[in-house]
Amino acid sequence: MKGRKKFEELEDELGTEKQILTMAEAVMFTGLSRNTLYRLTHQKKIRHYKPGGKLIIFRRKDLEDFMFANPIEVE
User: Fold this and answer.
1) What is the pTM of this model?
2) Among 10, 39, 58, 60, which residue's Cβ finds the most Cβ atoms within 10 Å?
3) CA pair distance 11, 25, nearest whole angstrom
4) Are 75 and 66 in contact, with CB atoms under 8 Å apart?
């Protein structure tokens, strides 16, 4: 997963885990496409924020909660 590796390199450079992610960072973090993330925000299926009315940002925890929302139980 090339994007995820890039995201981890970005965090290594900053020396911390980013808690607020831009759309581009969310794409790298989740591995989802930009179109998929836009669709999920439009359908209000993933929590997001618009602090000026246009720019979309995400909380890292909200993305993690979304990604782990439907676990498949193993036997």
Assistant:
1) 0.77
2) 58
3) 11
4) no
